[in-house]
Amino acid sequence: MKLFSALFITLMATMLFSDIVKKIEYKGLVHISKPVALRMLQFDVGDEIDPKQVDNAVQAYFKQGYFKDIWVSFDAGELVFNFVEKAIISKVELKGWKDDDEEIMASVVQIKKGTLYDMKKLEQAKKRIIQAMSQDGKIDSVVEIETEHLDNGSMKVTFVANEGGEILIEKLRYSGVKALDSDDFDDVIANKEHQFMGWFWGRNSGKMKLKDLEYDNLRIRDFYMQNGYLDSKVDKPFVRVNFDNYTADMSYEIFEGQPYTIQKITIEQAKDVATEAEIREKITLKKGEVFNIKTFREDAEKIKTLIADKSYAFVQVVPDLRKDEKKHTVEVVFKVMPGSKVKIRNVLISGNNRTLDRVVRRELYLGPGDMYSLTDLKDSRNSLGRLGYFDSNTIEEKRIDDHTMDLMVKVKEAPTGNIQLGGGYGSYGGLLVNIGVNDRNIWGSGINVGVKAEKSQVSKSYSFSISNPRLNDSDYSGNFSIFHSAYDYNSYTVITDGLSFGTGHRFTRNITGYVGYGYSKNSYEFAGDFNSSLYGSQSFFEAYDKSAITVSAKWDSTDDFYLPREGFELSQSLEFAGVGAKAKFVKSKTNFSIYKGMAEYLNFDAIFRYKARFYTMFDNGYIPLAEKFYMGGIGSVRGYQSYSLSPMVADTTGYDSYNGQRIRRVGGTATFSNNLEMSLPLVPSAKMRLVTFVDWGVITDNITSNLVNENMISRGGYGAGIEWFSPVGPIQLMFAKPLLDKPDDKTSVFEFTMGQRF
């Protein structure tokens, strides 16, 4: 602001002492409109004004933050406010650390294009960048702000970051540790002593994490309390840093005390809303056992859920510990203050720019007029996650008063239409590629429509399918598909034309059932002639038709469609073939998957997964070769080509070899395979994860004679891969190495799929 000189103020005072404002004008005003500027004045045209009123007006305009200079002129009753506005920032860059990372620019820098040039805000951004670098373990970091005036009058701002060094913890000491093993502290603290080959998986890198340093002593004390040491004290660490080589020594002073056993468990309710027996059923802690603070918290949460499910949304469970320091016993007290019953007033949905409101609402177990239930709220979140339509969802509780609340459902939509790609690279078959197009949520209706055209070195197929998981928003589902395919099973090609349709029903929140019918006509093609007598009294390669009824049931308690972090799936299907057609058999398929997020144990977003499949079939007259089971590839045992693991018979006219013999793969009648996987965050901002896996499976056949290999084939595989939520859908890139492989096995080094669950 230009300073008024004494003479100018005197003249203004003389001019304004008793003069009347006849006109008010603004010059250089852009960010505030003239009507808004006039409303900010404490006077109007026709009023008498004095210098103090003008000064107040100037200060009011300055507080808006848009101007770097304001001055006033007054002549013949015309009052003119002159403004020089701050320049607009048209370009913002971050260099030297997380260069122009979109997430960092939004969350840390917080300076956007189009904002006004304000040095105070730039300095605040600079402090945030330095703080963020320090949280990465960097010290002595420096950030400089470079500005450039552009030809169009705007400003370019560049934050130039110079990262400091990382501190390596060379020595970590604990004083006072007697009862527990200090090595166990590594499981709970973030700052650990450097180990040899610390860069290797499972070893301690020793890099100091400054943001966690102030909490590590609390984590150690919590560990003591999990073992009953309620009197334990852990001082904040003493850190000695050598800035010449950025190394540090750390030490903790610890007082352990004695472990406490539980002498009594007491429940105190402000008002009785649940029986004591109901509450005690939720409590895991036992009288006479060593106290565990972790179990104590979990029990309090279980009690809270029990009471909240009775519509007491604002219930508080206040735990209390009454210690007898002489006897080292503790009375555990749960104080339950339920508050009032709460009803849902309204459910508001946002973020579903494409998906219809009704598609979201039908997955919610709470609606306007319903009484509150915490379990219903959690189940609603999981149900929305299992749709696969949203990247994320939250349900916020907005308290209206002691008796009512609104639920704010916020979703972030994910791409549901995608081009499905799949394929791999094998040492035998080379590069394989397939393609398909589908949309799981067409026009936001929740209806799944797919048109698939697949062409690879081993397959060719065309299909159209449509399914609706909630017919007319009911608990019933329906599907229809028509298809043509030609698939090479390594030793022969199966050509299939068919259709299928069916209906399902959701019996509970987690249990669904399905019954369907399918019909297909199937034939075979070969390379050369074959000797049918090698396959028993009946040829396996006769053209056949199949008419089958399928019945299935499924339990699904997972929290997300593509990347679940909790829950499990269990499904069982039975296919009865032989309804007026040549193929006659019963096929059973059992699938099981369990998912567990490891963030609470490892302090980062790791996910453990176990998947198992058990398939078997029974002969009711005729099992065609194409209906039998084959193993290998993604979905069973990685490291081998898809469908390449199978019982085999000798055939002098065949074209595959095994131990020097000509063979044909004839499939199995039973197979079991399972996978252990650990998914780890790789590039969170790009939704990219690293997965490591170990697979193992067996396949056997109890029908075919003249087998040239073992009746029960056992193979394994291991490797790593990338899971990526790309803009066109989820992609898996898998690199595998076989285990227990034989010289003539068809191995596969690399496979990829798109559009499948991880």
Question: Secondary-structure blueprint of this entry?
Answer:
Elements (H helix, E strand, L loop, with lengths): L5 H11 L6 E5 L6 H6 L11 H12 L4 E9 L2 E8 L3 E7 L6 H8 L9 H17 L2 E2 L2 E8 L5 E8 L2 E2 L1 E8 L34 H17 L6 E2 L3 E5 L4 E9 L5 E9 L6 H7 L10 H16 L7 E9 L4 E9 L5 E8 L6 H5 L12 H14 L2 E10 L4 E10 L3 E10 L3 E10 L8 E8 L3 E10 L7 E13 L4 E14 L4 E15 L18 E13 L9 E12 L6 E14 L1 H4 L4 E16 L25 E3 L5 E3 L2 E5 L4 E14 L4 E13 L11 E15 L2 E11 L8 E7 L4
Parallel strand pairs: 1-3, 4-7, 9-12, 13-15, 16-18
Antiparallel strand pairs: 2-3, 5-8, 6-7, 10-12, 11-12, 14-15, 17-18, 19-20, 19-37, 20-21, 21-22, 22-23, 23-24, 24-25, 25-26, 26-27, 27-28, 28-29, 29-33, 30-32, 31-32, 33-34, 34-35, 35-36, 36-37
What does this structure look like?
The chain is an alpha+beta fold and 758 residues long. It folds into 6 domains: 6-85, membrane protein fhac (Ubiquitin-like (UB roll)); 89-162, membrane protein fhac (Ubiquitin-like (UB roll)); 167-255, membrane protein fhac (Ubiquitin-like (UB roll)); 261-337, Ubiquitin-like (UB roll); 343-413, Roll (Ubiquitin-like (UB roll)); 417-754, Beta Barrel (Porin). The radius of gyration is 35 Å and the shape is globular. The model is unreliable at 1-17, 426-430 and 534-538 (pLDDT under 50).
Main sheet: strand order: 19-20-21-22-23-24-25-26-27-28-29-33-34-35-36-37
The CATH topology of the largest domain is given as Porin
Structurally, how many domains make up the residues? 6
Distance between the termini: 61 Å
β-strand percent reads 35-45%
* Broad structural category: alpha+beta
Radius of gyration: 35 Å
